Each structure stands twice: as structure tokens, then as C-alpha cells.
Amino acid sequence: MEVLISIAAKAAEYTVDPIAQQLNYLFKHNSNFHNLKEQIEKLQHARGRVQHSVDEETRNAKEIEADVLKWLASVDNKLTENSGEKLEQDEEKTKNKCFVGLCLNLKSRYRLSKRAVEEAQAITHLLGDGKFDKVSYSPTMEGVVTKGYKAFESRTKALEGVMEALGESSVRIIGIHGMAGVGKTMLAKEVAARVKEEHLFDEVAMAVISHNPDTRKIQGEIADMLGQHYDKETISGRQMQLRERLLKTNKRILIVLDDLWQKLDLEEIGISFQEAAAQKSSTAGCKLLLTSRSSQVLDLMDSERSFGVEILSQEESTILFAKLVGDIVGKSDDYERIANELVEKCAGLPFAISAIANALKRRDLSSWKDALRRLRKAGPNMKEMQQTVSSTIELSYNLLESEEAKSILLLCSMHPQGLDIHLSDLLQCSVALDLLEDVETLEDATISLNELVEKLKASSLLLEGKDCKWVKMHDLIRDISISIASKNKGMCVIKDENHLKELLKKGNLKGCTAISLPHSNIPDLSGVDCSNLELLMLLNKDPSFQVLDTFFKDMNELKVLSVTGMSFPSLPSSFLSLTNLQALRLCECELSEIGIIGSLKKLDVLSFKGCSIEQLPVEIAELTRLKLLDLSECQKLKVIPANVISKLCRLEELLVGNSFERWDVEGNAQLAELSNLSSLSALEVYIPNAKRMPQDLFLRKLERYKIAIGPRHEDYSVLEFIKDNNLFTKSKASKALELEIDIGNGLHKGIEMLVKKAEELRIEGLKGAEDMVYELDTKGFPHLKYLTLKNTSDIKWIINSTGMGLAPHKAFPVLETMHLNFLTNLEKICHGELKTGSFSQLTTIEVGRCGRLKNLLSFSVAKNLNQLQQISVWLCENITEIVAGERREDNDENDILEFRSLCSLTLRDFPKLKSFCLQEKTDSSSSRQGESASNNVSYRGSDGIHYSLFNSKVSCPGLKELNLELISGIERIWHHDQLSMMSLGVQSLTSLTLFRCHKLKYVFISSMVKSFVQLRKLVVIQCDEMQDIIEERISNNIKVFPKLDSLKLSELPNLKRFCCGTNTIEFPSLTKLKVEICPVLKTFYCDGSSVGDDISLDHNLYAPLFDEKVILPVLEELSIYKVDNLERLWPNQLAQHSFSKLTSLYLQGCPKLLNVIPPSMLTRLQGLNALYIESCESLEEIIFESRSQEGSERTGEIIQGGDGEISFPQLNLLELRGLEKLESFCSSKNYTFGFPSLQNVTVAYCSKLKMFTQGDSITPVLHKVTFATWENYEQHSEDSFNSFRYEEMWENYRERWVGSLNSTIQQIFSEQNAIREEFENFEQDYSSSIKDQGNSSLSNTQSPGPKLIHITDSEAQELLFGTKN
Predict the structure, then answer these.
(1) Which residues, at least 6 apart from 344, have a Cβ–Cβ distance to it below 8 Å?
(2) Which band of pLDDT confidence, cut at 50, 70 and 90, is reported for residue 15?
(3) 751 and 698 in contact (C-beta within 8 Å)?
């Protein structure tokens, strides 16, 4: 019963409550509206409080939480819906009566009262939702914004290197270094932007360090960009918080620390790589990218990869300047001339180029001229535009650690602008000026100088020169260094006589200590106070210029005199005043009488480098203090008197290698004299005959030497031999030896010592040795870095460990490069087992014309070549594999031969090559052989085994360049088993060249294409059986070779297509495409969707070369040459943006091509600059109007504004040649053509070209048309005339202009057609005459035939038209 009562009560509740609520709407409408008004008032107050908080946080640069913004929007909507006026109206409506006015309108009252209750409830909910703990948050700063970065070639290598290093999990710290203003910061910002774009890092922060680091500021900048909040105020407190953030976050973070001047304490900032937590973390806390002017600072910061940023090339500088100032440069020659000089003044610094370009943007020509004038006159500080860079360079100078380094830098600034500086020049000057501390010998000085130069290069104050022996200075650094030298050291560079007068007037030359006159042709310094002068440099270009005889008067304190390029019939008598001279450098001078030098008793250094002297004066023997004598490159030197060199008892360095060979001949010095030089530590010498060498020669220790021993070839003069022998000028080694000797009777003891100590060894024509190591150095050449061995028939092995017992020594442990050429009997490079560590530093192998060589390396040796970067092998006709495949049974079957550092591989002319490494085991069982074969063949065909170049056991993960030429036995490059291997070695490939690999039917298969992510250049030439570049159908939409920039397909007689597929194929980076002599090629990409499994079917006879599925968005240059089956280039419809960047189109030798440009291409050719079409016999018009409705509609869309004009705004050059059926550029009468930039038009062999276009052609800058005309022709024999073609007469070119392009083409056609008809009539008359002559000859054989006359083109014009052209 109780249960029943409970149920009944609940039912009554559900029944009565709704009824009560309905009645409440009717009778409590006043209280309902009153409650709503109160709720609205509360909501307004709540909204105001929240809005105040939002406004305050917004002023503090905070981001407002999304739910707060959503709530405010909801509140605003609710308040709008319940405005005061609307409430009043609704409340009044509840009092309204029915339409007859007899009773209340209960329905209206009910509805409005109910709405008031519902709105009040909704507002109550909003009030509850509006109680926020906080309304904002601190945003993560965008921070790194890149503006103005230009992807120049000089930056590409560094950028790609940094990106690659950042992708390596083991690398944590990467550095960028370069001189001030070169663009390090811009490059770092570009890296930061790219890593975010490519999702390599989740967050990026950047802080500027500068020369005076502020730890608190650095912490703040990093925190701001990471959205980090510091609760602590102290540096140590912030350090802990930042450290915790970096260690405990799951995000990948890159921190860029820009402009480091010295070592920075990362721990103090809060960046740690030392703790276990950091080392175990997948992100290692974070990764660092550092920038600095000094690579040494990067080393101190433990940078694991460092990349240098070079100055811009002249071309890059010009491009940058033009982009910044806009198209004004092309307005006139004046702008262009000034722009070129301004760019040159900026010396490749992006900072300076940007400053000048931005200052001149939108300025008139007078402003440009004024800027150039000011820049020409600008002093070392480059005025306002480069003050920032100048101050940073001066600061770099002040922060150099030693006075020695500062002195060397200032010495470099005395050298001519823009020229490389040889280290020997610096050595000779610095020794005489006593700039180097704590050195006693020239060897000490050399070591000290090299260290100082490296420090200056590391600080970016000096740059790398043409090779390791040269350095150079950036022009801006030189200018600032000259300014410092002038102010602080009394050193001055005088440009010319006007500059000299200006300096004298200002008193800037008083008490000067150094003067440089670079090409200034100042004959005397009579007005200059030279009493304190210690350094004088004279450089001359004019061989006729001579200084006065009194030029050197009063230079008593002069220590260094360096003269270049002057002529001295006899040295000035004022030379006698140079009593304190310690270094005399006469370089590239014409010298005759120079005996006066013998009076300069204090000389330590004497150089005649490159001088035209024939005899060394005997007075040189009196210079007993002389430490260095440089006779290098004195190609006319014939006499070094006997007993002169032997008296130079303190001589430490003698350089005469590429100048003199007449030892022991006709009263010349003897080689034995060299043995008497007890202090000699550096020697450069050429010895023609080893048999004349004294036994004790070279037994004394030499610290540096470059010695060539052996006769020169008979057809070489001394000068030719010296010029071609670069041992003395190009060798990087401090100890280099070149030999051509017979060691059958033993090796000279002195030579043996030189061989064992050599860092570079060049051997040619070696006789009496089968094994280089065993015969020349049984210790395995422990010091040798560079080896060249050529033209030797006795050598069988480079190293034969079987003849050395157990091979107790490593062979070539530090060898870096090995060049072997024309070793006709070389069987193996390594014969027998080698000790671990042999060849461990080898980076380059080049082997050529070694006919008996069957392989390059053994598997065991190859496995240890971890540093090998380059392999180049050619003309070794018996090589079957590069790495010998024999492997012992105890080797792991899963061994993979990995060349982890190999970046370049060139193989050329190998008729027997089967594979890079066959890897056959030394097991005779058939099962083993079968297993071996399966590891190496790509497939087994009906005609036998087919080999691939690389099999599944070879990996070259860093290979960037692969060149294969004349490899006739290989049918596939890569083995199919490799396709799933990440270590395949194709992911790094940037360049692939294939030449005359006749059995290759394809280059890639479709499944591996996606692996070639770095390929930039692909060249395939003369591969006779090549049918497809990519084999197998591509089934997905793909971007093929995402970085491919250049593609060339040439002389491929069986090439049918690039590839086949069912979906779109895109080349996102391809800018250059060249297709040449591919006679069966019809289409670039064959649609495989409609041909079933047989993709070789030619299902579309009229397919264009490129259809809508081929996407080439950035293609700039397209060249098609001799593609016989080409009928159409493009269809009526193309993919969006495809071909839209085309600037150059070249078509030649396409006999079936009917037209060129369909309507779909018109809007894509806005950037076309050059159009060249030749020898397309079937071509009827260039632009054709589609006959389909779709094509017509498309053409209508292209014509903008309904004015019927088609424009080629950038077209500058148009050449039409040998187009026999071409009647017009476009036959449609509906359009006017605009060519606003067209300046060059050439027409030749277009006999039917009656007019250019049916409509008008607007060419505002075109003032001539170049056309082929009849050349003078001589009398031809009967046979030659009958075979004479009309085109053969079109050899000369004329110019014509008749007011417009159409009128000019019409007149040319009329005139040339008349001339042609006249000559055709002449030919007919001639043929008839010959025929008549033949008939009459039966009766009278003596009857003379008609005589051809010689007429000129102008005569033909006058004859036909009464005027001369």
C-alpha cells in the first residue's frame, strides 16, 4: 500500500507542477520581468569586471584565454537580445487585450512571460560561467622573423650543412662563423624559420650575446620566446628555472645564441649538456646554434659542427642590389653603370649593399651620382652607411689577444687592395721588423706566423686565399685596419700624388714608420719625413716607370724594402743609405747591375722572387748575416757562381727549386755546397741528375723541403718544366719530394731519408721496384699524406704484405690522397693482409690506365676506409669490381660494406665491370655459389645473369655525386633488395650523370624514387637501350625528386618517355629541362590508366609532350632539340601554375610540330624572355586558337578587360629560322598582341611568313628586324647547281624597319619572294639551256654553254626594284 501511495504522490507531482508552472507564466508575469531585469543588471556588472581585467592584460601584451573571449561574446549577444527598450516593450505587451478588446491576450502574456523566465535562467548560467581565476596568459613570442634572406649559392652550402647537422641526433651544438656584416645573423634566422616550418623543432628562441654579455638579459630573451615565467629575481634563481624547463619538457627546442665574442658560460644561463638527465633526454635539453666572427670562439663553445659564411660574389651582390632598389636599374645605362660601381664598393657585404640600396630606393639619378661621389671619397669608415660594421671590426681588432696578431693584421693592410698575400711575404717582413716574439730561427718564425694567421682567420679578420699559402683581406677590414695603423702606428697607404699632397698638407706623414705606394707611380718622397721609416712597399704596373736616384736618401732607419714590378738597369745609388736594411724584397723586377746589394751588410732576408736576373752577383757572398735567400720563379737564372752559397754560413732557408738546374755545370755552384750550410732547415731545389748528388747531401735534418730529383723530359725546356711543375708552387705539404729514378742498385741514403719523412711523394718512371712499400719504406710511410705514382711499368703492388712477413707496421696510416696513373703492370694495390689502421685517413683515390688491375680494393681494406670521400677510376679495362668480393668463411654473412663518408664516385670506361662489389665467398659448393649469385644479381633472365652496380651489401649513405661513363656491362644501377634499406645511399645523392651506359634500360624504379630527396642534377646521355627514366608505373600523386634543379636527356635513341603513371607527377624545384635527339620520344609522362599492364602501348597518337598531369611550377628554361615525333608541346588544359615561371623556350629540329602555344599557356608566359624556334618544317603558327568550345572559353578568359590584347610583357628576343610552313605568329584576327619589351627579332628561312599577326602587334621598343638575305654566290658547276638549295644562299643578315613589325615582315616577304622568283626563273632558264646544249652537242661539241654571272645582293636589289639596300 505504501508503495502505491508513493507512486501516486510522484505522479501527482509531475502532473501538478507543470500546471502550476504554466499558471505562473500567466499570473506572475510582473515578477518574472522584474527578476529578468535584476539578472541583466548583474550580468552587466559581471561583464564590466571581466572586461576591465581583459583590457589590463591586453595592455600588458598578454593573450586572452579563448573561453573568456567566448564568454564575453555570449554575454554581448544576450544583452543585445534583452535590451532595456525591448524589455519595456515586452512588458507592455503582457497587458494587451484581445483583438476585440474584451479580454486579456493570455496567449501573448504566456509567451512573453515564459521567455522572461528562460532568459533569466540563461543569464544565471552565464553568471556562473563568468567566474574566471585568470583571463589571460603570456604568449610564446614569434621571436625569430626572417626578412630579406636571399638564397644565394654562397649561402646554400652553409645553410644545408646547418640543417643537416641539426637533424643528427648526436649533434647538440652547431656554429656559424664569418666576418662582420657578412650575414651570419640573417642565416641563423633563416635556419630558425626553416626548422619551425619543417617541424624539426617545436620551439625556437634567440638571444643576442654581443661583446659584453648580460646574463640576465640573455635569460630574459630566451624566456620571452619560450613563454617562460621567472618567479625568481636573481640570476641563479632564473638559471634553475630555465634549466628545469629545458630538461623536463617533452618539446624539441632550438636556442640561437647570436654574436658571441668570447666563451659563454652556458651553465650560468641555465643551459646544461653535462648532467645525466640532459644526456639521456631525447632532446638533450635543447640544441644550440651559435654565431661568431671567430671560429676559435666556436671551438671554445665545443661546437661539434662549424660552417663558414663567405662574402657575396659580384653576381650575387648585383642581384641583391637590384632586388632591393627595384627595376630602376634597367631604366638607363647610367643607373646600371652607377649600380655596378656601388656594388663593387660594397665588397660583397650584404649589410653594406642593403644600406646603400635602401638609401637609394625611389631616388633620382642625381641622388645616385651623389652617393657614388661620396662613397668614392669616403674614408676607411665608409661614412654613415657602414659605421656599425666599422665599429665592430675595430672592436674585433682591439680584442685580439696579442700585439703580434695586431701587427700582422696591420702589415697585411699595407698590401694592395683585393690581392692575395703570400705567407712568405708576411714572414720575410715580420722577421725583419721583429714583429714575432720569442723566435730564434726562421723555422720558429714560420710556426709562430702560421699560428697567428690561423687566429686572424678564425676571427674573420683575414680570409682564406687561393690556397693554404695565401690569405686575403676584405676591403672593408683593410680600410679600417689602415685607419687604425695610420692613427696608432704612423703607417700610411698613399694612393697617388694627389693623395700624397693631401696627406702632406694635413701633416699626416710626420714621423711615419711605414709607407705603402700601391701602383701610385710616385717618383720621389722628397717632401716626406722618412727619418723614422722602417717599412716601404713600392708596387708598380708600368714597366717604364723609374724612381729617382735619390729616392731612398735619408731612409737610414729603413728595415724592410719591398719592391714589385719595377725596372732597375742599375740600383739607385741612394741604396747605400739603407745601412739598417734587414729585408730586401725585389719581386718581379727587371734587374741588371745589382752588385751594390753586397754593401747591405745587415740583410737577413733577400728575395729576387720572379725577377729577370740571369746571374746571381758574387757580392752576395758578403752578406754573411743572410738567413733567407729566395730565388724562386727566376726563370732566366743561369748562373749561381761557385762558392757563393757556401759562404752564407747562417743561411736557414734557400728557395731555388723552380728556377735553376745547372748545378756542377760550367763554373756554377755545386750541390756539395749545400752540405756546408749547417743552419739550413728549409730547402727548395731541383736536381736533374741524382748521380751527381754527394752521399752526405740531405742527411742533415730539414724541417721543410720541396725537392724534385730526376731528368726533365727532352721536349721540355727549363722554362716549360718549371712552369708545369707545381710541386714548388701548389704543394700543401711542408715536406714534398718528386722522384724519377732507378733504384735497382739501391737508394741514395739522403733520398731514402727524404722519402721516409715526406708528407707528399710524387714518383714518375720509377724503375727497379715491384712493391713500393717494401722497396722504399718498410715502415709503411708513417708521415705520407699525398701520394702520386705514374708512368711506371715495374710496380706490381703498392704494398705487398706477404713480402713483409707479418706486416709489423701500419701501411700509409695518415695518407689522405692517392693518385695512380698509367701503371701498366699494377696487379693489386694491396697484396696480402694489412695491419688495422692502414689507409685509415684516406679521403681520395684516383686510379687510371692500370690495365692489369682487376679490382681497386680488397673487402677487408675497404671496410676500414671510414674517411674515404672520393673515388675516381677510369680506363682500367680488366676491372670487374671496384671492391674485391672475396670474403673468408668466418666473416658474418650480414656484413655490409659501408662507405660512410664517400660523397663522390666516378667510374669511366670499364667494359668488364660487373658490380661495385660482388661479395662472393671463397666456398666451392654449388649452394654457396647460388647464394652468392642471388645476393648480386638484379634478376635472372632467359639470357643469363644480370648484374647491378650496387647490391644489397653495399651502402654509401653520404654519396652526393655519382658519374658513370662507358659502363657497358651493367643493366641496373641499384639492386632491388636495397629499396627498403635506409642506408641505401641514395638519400644524399645530389648529382647523377650517366654517359654511354648502353645496357641500362632505365635509371630508377618507381618504388625507389621517393628516396632521392636531395637530387639536384640528372644527366643521361647516349644510353642506347634506355627506354624509361623511371621504370614501372607510378601509382600515387608524388613530387618527384623534390630538389631536382637541372635535367638533361640527350641522344637516347630508344627513350619513349620519362615515366608512366596514373596520377599527377610534380617536379617542384626543376628550373632547367633539356631534351635532345630523342627520336622516338612523344610524351614526357605516359598515362598508364588506359593501357592496362602493357605500359609500352602508344595509346594516344596525338599526346602532347607535357599533359595536365605533369606539374613544373618553377621551370625557367625549356630546350627541345631534334625530337622527331613531337607534335604538340602542351594540351589545352594544364595543371595550375605549371610552366608559369618559364623564361626561355628553345625548339629546334622537331619536324612534326604543328604549333607551339595553346590558349592554356598564354597567361603562363608573362615571364618569357626568349623564344627561339628553328627547323620545325611542319610548324604553321606559333599561337593557335583552340577549335573546341572549352578552348575558346579558355582563350576568352585569358583576354582581360575585353580589349582583345594578348601581352608578352617580358619577351625580349624572338628568333624564327627554317620554318618553311610558318605563315604567321598567330592567324586569329581577334587579338592585338603586346610586346612591350621586345628588342630583338630575327627571321630566316621562313618563306611563307607573309605577316606577323592578323591583328596589330604593339612593339614600342622594337626598331629593327634582322632577316637573312641572299649572299653573293659564285659560278657553280652543273652538278653543284642542280643540287644547290635555296637555304644555302641565306648566309648574310640585314636589318629592316618599316614603322611596325607587321609592315616590316610584309615588306621583307615581298622583296625576298620577288628575288626568289627571279632566281627560280634563272634556274629554269639555266636548266633549259643545259638541256639544249646537250642536244646541240651531238652536232657541235665545241658549242659553248651559258656562262653564270656573279651578282651581289645590292645589285640584285637594284636590278629588281631600282634601289640599293
Answers:
(1) 314
(2) very low
(3) yes
- In b/e form, how buried is each residue of 890-901, taking b as 16+ CB within 10 angstroms? eeeeeeebbbeb
CA–CA dist 1056, 1033 (Å, integer): 14
**Average pLDDT, whole number, for the chain?**
80
Residue 816 and residue 786 in contact, taking contact as beta carbons nearer than 8 Å: yes
- Could you tell me if 312 and 186 are in contact, meaning their C-beta atoms sit under 8 angstroms apart? no
Task: Look up the CATH superfamily of 491-590.
Answer: Ribonuclease Inhibitor (3.80.10.10)
Q: What is the pLDDT of residue 85?
A: 66
- Note whether 585 and 605 are within 8 A (CB): yes
Reduced to 3 DSSP states, what percent helix, strand and coil does the chain have, rounded to the nearest 5? 35, 20, 45
Domain borders along the chain are: 2-137, 153-308, 314-387, 400-489, 491-590, 1267-1361
Q: Which three cell numbers stand for residue 1000?
A: 641500362
Three-state DSSP state, 1350 = coil
The pLDDT assigned to 423 comes to 94
8 Å CB contact between 552 and 599: no
Distance between CA atoms of residues 1169 and 1184, nearest Å: 20
Average pLDDT over residues 1169-1191: 79
Spatial distance between the Cα atoms of 1087 and 1065, rounded to a whole number of angstroms: 11
Distance (Å, whole) CA 874 – CA 856: 11
Other CB atoms within a 10 A radius of the CB of residue 429 amount to 25
Counting residues of the chain whose pLDDT is more than 90, the rounded percentage is: 34
Question: 550 Cβ partners below 8 Å, 6+ apart?
Answer: 524, 526, 572, 574
What is the spatial distance between Cα 1090 and Cα 1285, in angstroms, rounded to a whole number? 46
DSSP result, 1113-1171 = TT--EEEEE--TT---S--S---TTTTTT--EEEEES-TT--EEE-GGGGGG-TT--EE
CA–CA dist 387, 385 (Å, integer)? 6
To the nearest 10 degrees (0 to 180), the angle between helices 423-432 and 403-413 is 120
3-state secondary structure 465-529: CCCCCEEECCHHHHHHHHHHHHHHHCEEECCCHHHHHHHHHHCCCCCCCEEEEECCCCCCCCCCC
Q: What is the pLDDT of residues 1098-1115, one digit of tens each?
A: 444 568 899 888 899 999
What is the phi/psi pair of residue 814, to 5°?
A: -120, 10
CA atoms within 13 A on the CB side of 940: 6
- Check residue 616 and give left, alpha or beta (phi > 0: left; psi -120 to 50: alpha): beta
Residue 221 grid cell: 630573451
CA 345 to CA 474: how far, in whole Å?
11
- H or E, element range at 1240: strand 1240-1244
Q: Which residues of 176-192 are buried (b: 16+ CB within 10 A; e: fewer)?
A: bbbbbbbbbbbbbbbbb
Confidence of residue 1345 (pLDDT cuts 50, 70, 90): very low
CATH, domain 400-489, list 2.40.128.110, 1.10.10.10, 3.20.20.80, 3.40.50.920: 1.10.10.10
pLDDT at 1148: 95
Tell me the residue length of the chain.
1365
Q: Which pLDDT band holds residue 986 (cuts at 50, 70, 90)?
A: confident
pLDDT at 1354 over 80: no
pLDDT tens for residues 701-721? 899 999 999 886 554 555 555
Give 1062 or 977, the one with higher predicted confidence: 1062
Tens of pLDDT, residue by residue over 360-393, are 777 788 888 877 776 676 544 444 445 656 766 7
pLDDT at 933: 42
pLDDT tens digits for 198-256?
778 888 998 888 777 888 888 888 888 887 777 777 888 888 888 888 877 778 889 99
Q: Which residue has the cell 529578468?
A: 36
Whether domain 153-308 has CATH 1.10.2020.10: the reply is no
